UniProtKB/TrEMBL annotation:
Main subcellular localisation: mitochondrion
Annotated keywords: Calcium, FAD, Flavoprotein, Metal-binding, Mitochondrion, Oxidoreductase, Repeat, Transit peptide
Protein known as: Glycerol-3-phosphate dehydrogenase
Cited function: Calcium-responsive mitochondrial glycerol-3-phosphate dehydrogenase which seems to be a key component of the pancreatic beta-cell glucose-sensing device.
Pathway named in the protein's UniProt entry: Polyol metabolism; glycerol degradation
EC numbers on record: 1.1.5.3
Entry's family note: Belongs to the FAD-dependent glycerol-3-phosphate dehydrogenase family.
Gene behind the chain: GPD2
Length: 708
């Protein structure tokens, strides 16, 4: 059957296509010799001046309240909503955007971090002869090239390996991947190629080598999704859009059209979530770009309207960086239940996902243990048996809700296309739904085109193709060297700042604190294992960060990389933000509690703690186990299920013992078997067994000061 499937796929493609692919491969060889030919023809430059400085959130709120009427009001600050704001304002339209949470707080920050056309969508287009799927892939590949060009500091090409374990699959997958190159045309990032078994293992040494016959490598893009979303929103604000996060729509405003006698949407009644202040925002056109919450806004317009979105949950996990090469991803094209799993290096860690299951709509999705274990099992299938894939290696996990467009003929979400739709209601509400991260710009263009036509707005064509986002103008791959030389930053920190803020990295470096050390001169880290520095918290407030969760998840990505490290950084972040935003002590406590709750439920802490067991193959007598469990809980006062360096420091301070932080890190690292930055109960008991055998009791197992 498998062979028949391969033959069917090959026959469908046809001999002419194969000949064309051969020509493409010759073209690719030429390109590889003569340089990259990927090029985006920029649109006409925007005639709207760009502000040198970002307006404060307070000024943006005043603009929303005091402007008599906007041309467009966009509800939703995700990638699509922010893209709509940028598209509209650069056409010269008076633009407003409101977001009830933070920019990119929903699906846009919880993606697979890929900028891609969709290899599997192309497969569906071919196998089902679906021209709509083909057009979507073609459009996405164009948008991929555009995104890599307009934000080079936040995005880059990434080679992805497709391992092959059956000989017949080599020509089958090779033809499919070559078609992917062909559809990209001149915007192909780099030609795909075939690897021998030995070469594949050389590039991806942790790969399962049994039965491996070779591999195919193709190229897609990768980005920092939350920072990309933020860059779009900030660029729109600098062009003059009145954008405000933590501003929710209470209800839509309507008025009667004197010509038709029908009610028309003419704005929204909004509320500042942080202060409770309410106000009206008038607009000629209101755009609904709320992702999974599309139908809730549509029902504000018409209670009887049928739902058009079918939500699907996608869970991802983050594991230590040693699980994947620094610059090579992995694609599992056919998991045990037919899904596709990516295994990718990201921010010096490894991200794996995603799942695709129907879900309820919620602003706070929680990763399920069954989904985490599904991903882990699929990872085990593709990694060498020498690599022990542990549940404890999951440093963070999250769930994102995809706003898929409902297909009434489909029984499950996996067959639903990510195509987007633009709909205009009888009252004039413009809704953009569906789509995917990569195509946010073309989705925004289609939306504003529809708004201009439906509401007779005076605007020209879209100006966003080739329009550089904030941070891109003066960025270069060597910009970080200037940060090191001019400010005395660590090289790792400088590279991080350059790849996060682009040419705005100098603004962060200018406010970095002196360390008091010989080197680095400036740049105090929030946690020692990651390059995030305290100055980023101050700068993040200028980027409209209003809560600690904003800071750990979207201004920095600490919560997405290691929840334990994020937890350790919370007290310092609360102090810095409290000073910048004049928080009271009570407000600080509430922010700290909210951030801990976010980490516990939405970033995988809860699922991880529920996995703790009492045994873990530890050969201690029951009385010893109970004794060491009591010692464990002496450190773990909050019943988190693990011990951190902060817990150890607290206990040591209570018994008047002082040990420098580096030594404590070394101690915990010795016990931290899975190297996830925390000591769990099973690791603690495992270490106790070793110490009992050696008749040695280390500092962190002591029960009383006298034990020392």
């Amino acid at each position: 059957m498998a062979f028949q499937k391969a033959v069917k796929g090959t026959v469908l493609i046809g001999g002419g296509a194969i000949a064309t692919i051969f020509g493409l491969s010759q073209f690719s060889q030429y390109r590889n010799k003569h340089g990259n030919l990927v090029y985006i023809q920029a649109a006409e430059p925007a005639n709207v001046p760009m502000k040198n400085h970002l307006p404060a959130r307070e000024d943006q709120l005043l603009a929303l309240q005091n402007t008599s009427e906007f041309d467009v009001l966009i509800i939703g600050g995700g990638a699509t909503g922010s893209g709509c704001a940028l598209d509209a304002v650069t056409r010269g339209l008076k633009t407003a955007l409101v977001e009830r949470d933070d920019f990119s707080s929903g699906t846009s920050s919880r993606s697979t971090k890929l900028i891609h056309g969709g290899v599997r969508y192309l497969q569906k287009a071919i196998m089902k002869l679906d021209f709509e799927q083909y057009k979507m892939v073609k459009e996405a590949l164009h948008e991929r090239a555009n995104l890599l060009e307009i934000a080079p500091h936040l995005s880059s090409p990434l080679p992805i390996m497709l391992p092959v374990y059956k000989w017949w699959q080599l020509p089958y997958y090779w033809v499919g991947i070559k078609l992917y190159d062909l559809v990209a045309g001149s915007q192909c990032l780099k030609s795909s190629y075939v690897l021998s078994k030995s070469r594949a293992l050389e590039l991806f040494p942790m790969l399962q080598k049994d039965r491996l016959v070779g591999a195919i490598v193709y190229y897609d893009g990768q980005h920092n999704d939350a920072r990309m979303n933020l860059a779009i929103a900030l660029t729109a604000a600098r062009y003059g859009a009145a954008t405000a996060n933590y501003t929710e729509v209470v209800h839509l405003l309507k008025k009667t059209d004197p010509k038709s006698g029908k009610e028309r949407v003419c704005g929204a009644h909004c509320r500042d979530v942080l202060t409770g202040q309410e106000f009206d925002v008038k607009a000629k056109c209101v755009i609904n770009a709320t992702g999974p919450f599309t139908d809730s806004v549509r029902k504000m317009d018409d209670q009887e309207v049928a739902n058009i979105c079918q939500p699907s949950a996608g869970v991802h996990i983050v594991m230590p960086g040693y699980y994947s090469p620094d610059n090579m991803g992995l694609l599992d094209p056919a998991t045990s239940d037919g899904r596709v799993i990516f295994f990718l290096p990201w921010e010096k860690m490894t991200v794996a996902g995603t799942t695709d299951t129907p879900t309820d709509i919620t602003p706070h999705p929680i990763p399920k243990e069954e989904d985490i274990n599904f991903i882990l099992n699929e990872v085990r299938n593709y990694l060498s048996c020498d690599v022990e894939v542990r549940r404890g290696d999951v440093l963070a996990a999250w769930s994102g809700i995809r706003p898929l467009v409902t297909d009434p003929n489909s029984k499950d979400t996996q067959s639903i296309s990510r195509n987007h739709i633009v709909a205009v209601s009888d009252s004039g509400l413009v809704t953009i739904a569906g789509g995917k991260w990569t195509t946010y710009r073309s989705m925004a263009q289609d939306t504003i085109d529809a708004a201009v036509q439906a509401h007779n707005l005076m605007a020209g064509s879209s100006k966003t193709v080739g329009l550089l986002l904030q941070g891109a103008k003066d960025w270069s791959p060597t910009l970080y060297i200037r940060l090191v030389q001019d400010y005395g930053l660590e090289s790792e920190v400088a590279q991080h700042l350059a790849s996060t803020y682009g040419d705005k990295a100098f603004e962060v470096a200018k406010i970095a604190q002196v360390t008091g050390k010989r080197w680095p001169i400036v740049g105090k880290r929030l946690v020692s294992e990651f390059p995030y520095i305290e100055a980023e918290v101050i700068y993040g407030v200028k980027e409209y960060a209003c809560t600690v969760v904003d800071m750990i998840s979207r201004r920095t990505r600490l919560a997405f990389l290691n929840v334990q490290a994020a937890d350790e950084a919370l007290p310092r972040i609360v102090d810095i933000m409290g000073k910048e935003l004049n928080w009271s002590e009570q407000w600080k406590k509430e922010e700290l509690a909210a951030a801990k709750k976010f980490l516990y439920y939405e970033m995988g802490y809860k699922a991880k703690s529920e996995q703790l067991t009492d045994s873990s193959e530890i050969s201690l007598v029951p009385s010893d186990i109970e004794r060491y469990k009591k010692r464990f809980h002496m450190f773990d006062k909050e019943n988190k299920g693990f011990i951190t360096i902060l817990d150890v420091q607290r206990v040591l301070e209570s018994i008047s013992i002082q040990i420098d932080e580096n030594t404590l890190h070394d101690i915990l690292n010795e016990v931290d078997l899975n190297k996830n930055g925390q000591v769990e109960l099973d690791e603690f008991l495992q270490e106790a067994k070793v110490r009992e055998r050696k008749e040695y009791v280390p500092l962190y197992l002591c029960e009383r000061p006298g034990d020392l």
